[in-house]
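Pilot study result, target chain (172 residues):
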Amino acid sequence: MGLRSQADDLLAGLWLVKYRVWNAFSGTDMRKGIVVGLTLGVGVVIMVASKYQLFGFSHATTFPQLPENPNFTVSKDFDGEWLGRRKDVSKNWLCERTTISGKVVDGFVQLTLTYNGTPLKGWIDEQGALTLYATNARWDYRFTATASGNRIQGDWFLTNGPCKGSWYVERS
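Predicted structure:
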């Protein structure tokens, strides 16, 4: 067998390998490979985004937590039963209006969003300022307000959603 024959055999072998590789990734098999590759890629992106809290993914353990004790003097002037509303200004279908009800005992506020049962807790300071801490596995609510007389009113928003607005409760 001459040198030319060996070169021809080598070229024929390379052509056969190229042909088989090309056929393996063409047509239906190629589409399957692309779908599998894209699926794996999207899965990796979602896992990384979830771990580093990208794209609005949230973990309830990272939401602000109610301190065990306030670092200010608590006002007991607002003790009693309270009832009111939360209003949304975003006009997003996700953000429903709802009632809020609860009580204040020894300056400790315990309110509940009626539509999903989210508890809101916090203390009222001597100036009437109030920050509520929500306990919800999915939504990171932020409620702030000022108490005066028989009314507590303020603003609210979601850090991980489009919802925002105002809220109030009145002593019953």
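One observation from the pilot: The radius of gyration is 30 Å. A full batch analysis is planned for the follow-on phase.
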